[in-house]
Structure prediction request, 137 residues.
Amino acid sequence: IERTFSIVKPNAVAKNVIGAIYARFESAGLKIVAAKMLQLTRAQAEGFYAEHQGKPFFDGLVGFMISGPVVVQVLEGEDAVRRNREIMGATNPANALAGTLRSDYADSLTENAVHGSDAVESAAREIAYFFSEDEIC
Ligand code: ATP
Ligand code: MG
Prediction:
């Protein structure tokens, strides 16, 4: 059984769709095995997105991610990484298929409602960035 890491980003928290997004995870067979709401610090957001440091959208991305609370969660299920990416839809909501989370809840390419790990290796790193093993059920 596989785990992935997910963030409900500040724009989705602000529009009151945490529960709607969690229902999509559950309908897709992804079990929420850890969860918490937090206000990221700038250092936390910069560390999380370190792979994008130096890119033109980095400062805007970090500014957005600290603009309000986020909800972080660990999702567990068969093929969890790929399955979560599928229900999220494309990074750019203009390209996201109808019925995906980003199609329904993104406001722009930066404010695209959710994050999901892109591989099993990044999932393990991202889970460890926010959760200790005893916080995962
Ligand atoms: P995420 O990592 O958030 O799940 P992703 O893997 O689909 O999304 P990445 O390429 O890792 O996309 O980019 C991380 C985030 O940075 C995107 O989700 C989006 O919020 C923002 N982003 C990516 N590319 C751009 C861009 N060209 N302009 C503005 N924001 C961008
Ligand atoms: Mg990514």
